[in-house]
Fold:
Amino acid sequence: MKEQLTALKHEALAAIAGAEDLQSLEALRVRFLGKKGELTAILKQMGGLSAEERPVIGQMANALSEKLTGAIAARREALEAVALDAQLVREKLDITIPGTREAVGKQHVMRKTLDEALDIFIGLGFSIAEGPEVELAVNVFDKLNTPDAHPSRDWSDTFYFDRDSEYVLRTQTSPVQVRVMENQKPPIRVVSPGRVYRKDEVDATHSPMFHQIEGLVVDKGITMADLKGTLNALVEQLYGVGTATRFRPHHFPFTEPSCEVDCQCFKCRGKGCPMCKGEGWIELLGAGMVHPNVLRNCGIDPEVYTGFAFGIGLDRMTMMRYNISDLRLIFENDLRFLRQF
Ligand code: DAH
Structure:
C-alpha cells in the first residue's frame, strides 16, 4: 500500500500542478480526495493490514490528504490570480481617451422670438390657442367679414386645397379667432401663434410660408384704450420702457376701426437710420376693434360684447431683433448660420 500511496501522490501532485482552470481543479479534488475518490479507495483496503502497519499507513494517508489539500488550495489561489489579471486586462478603462460628446441642439432663432413674445403675452394674462394650417375658407374669409371680391381670396394669392375652394392653407392666423369665439364664451383673452401661407415669390423679405401671432380679447366694455395699453406693454417689454408706439388708420375687413401699429426705431430711437430706412418708425402689426359682423358670425352679441384683435408678423420681427438681413437665411437651416443665435 505504501507504493500505492506514493504513486497516487506523484500522479495527484502532477495533475494538480497541471490543472488549467478552476473547474478541472475541482474535478481533481473530487477524483483524489472525494468520498468515492482514489485515496478513500486505498484506505478501504486497510482492514487487511497488520496492527503494526496500520498506524504507519494511516499516518501516511493523512499526510498525503493534507498535502493534496494544500496543493489544491495553492493551485486555486494561483488560478484565481490569473483569472483576476485577465479580467483586469479585459475591463481596462482608459480615462484619458476623449469621450463621445453629445451634440446638444439649440432653439431655432424663429422659435426664440416666438417664445419671447408668448412669454410677454402670458405675463399679460393671455392663454394660447392653436388652429389648423389647412383651414376652412369660411373661417379664413367669410366669417371674418371678407367680401367675396376681396383680392386675398384670389387663386393667385392663396393656396387652395380643392376644386370647390372649401379648404385653404391659411393665409393668416385670424381664423383661430373664429374657432375660439365659436367654442368659448367671453371673457376671451388668447394669442395664437403659427405658420401661414401665401403665394409670394421667395426673396430677401418674402416667403410663401411665414409666421404670425394673432391676439384676441372679447369682453364687456373693451375699448381701443385696452388695445393701446396691451400693445404698448408688448412694445415696452420687447424694446425697452419708454419705446413709443404710433397707431395709423388702416383697413382690415375684420376690424372697425382698424389700424397699423409702428414702434419707434429701437436702433436710432426715432432719429432715422438704415434699420428704419430713415423713417424713425418700424411697422409692427395690424390691429383694430373686432367688427360687429365678426362677433355676430361667431355667435357673440355685439350689443353686449366688444373686443380688439391684432396680428403680428414674426419673421420681420426676428430679422430686426437679431439683425438678419435676408429672410431666406432663417429657413435655409444652415447650422453655421443658426448656431450664432
Ligand atoms: N390678419 C392680418 C394680416 O395677415 C393681420 C391682422 C390685422 C390681424 C388686424 C388682426 C387684426 O387680428 O385685427 O395681415
About this structure: The chain is about 40% helix and 20% strand. Residues 109-338 form a domain with the BirA Bifunctional Protein; domain 2 fold (CATH 3.30.930.10).
